[in-house]
Design a protein that fits this description.
By secondary structure, the chain is low in regular secondary structure. 7% of the residues lie in helices and 6% in strands. The protein is built from one helix and two strands, in the order ββα. It starts with 24 loop residues before the first strand and ends with a helix. The structure holds zinc ion.
């Protein structure tokens, strides 16, 4: 059976099987019946997932700017 998921392997790293969650899960958002991917550890579909922006650490200092 063909799998529609896009697969990619990082060069130099060993192939690891992604953790799988129960299949057939439905988005936790009320009224949404989108089936959540088995590889998605969130309880909601991508549309109802809370957006999390990564925090950028550190400050841009003069030392940083001039460092080689
Ligand atoms: Zn949803």
């Amino acid at each position: 059976m063909a799998d529609t998921a896009i697969r990619a392997a990082r060069p130099g790293s060993r192939i690891r099987r992604p953790k799988q969650y129960a299949r057939g899960r439905v988005c936790a958002q009320e009224g949404c019946d989108i089936v959540v991917s088995r590889y998605n550890r969130a309880d909601t579909c991508f549309k109802h997932r809370p957006v999390v922006y990564p925090r950028i650490r550190g400050t841009f200092t003069e030392e940083f700017a001039t460092a080689e």
